[in-house]
Design goal:
94 residues, alpha/beta, four-stranded parallel β-sheet, 20% helix
Length: 94
């Protein structure tokens, strides 16, 4: 699994969510990879590193607005603005 986030003061989603999700994945026996990119103006500015990393995994979770990138595997867009939302009841599985 690959987690993709953006690290920029104007980022819409909190990039620390990628680290929290990676930790939870490892604790569940998974092997997450993570790519944190700089702020991009559009899809043409997305670093090649993201596309290369997507070829090495079966699933990519975007904690960013980059989910329109072409690539293999399945994908999920995570609309998590900050990690505080993970402490709320809606984020838990019974």
């Amino acid at each position: 699994m690959l987690l993709v986030g953006k690290d920029h003061r104007r980022a819409f989603f909190d990039s620390s969510a990628c680290r929290v999700l990676a930790t939870a994945t490892r604790e569940s026996g998974g092997r997450p990879q993570m790519v944190i990119t700089f702020e991009t103006e559009g899809l043409e500015d997305v670093p090649d590193e993201v596309a290369r990393a997507m070829t090495r995994v079966d699933h990519t979770i975007f904690v960013s607005r980059l989910s329109e990138i072409d690539g293999p595997g399945t994908r999920t867009t995570c609309y998590l603005h900050d990690t505080g939302h993970l402490r709320r009841a809606f984020a838990r599985v019974p």
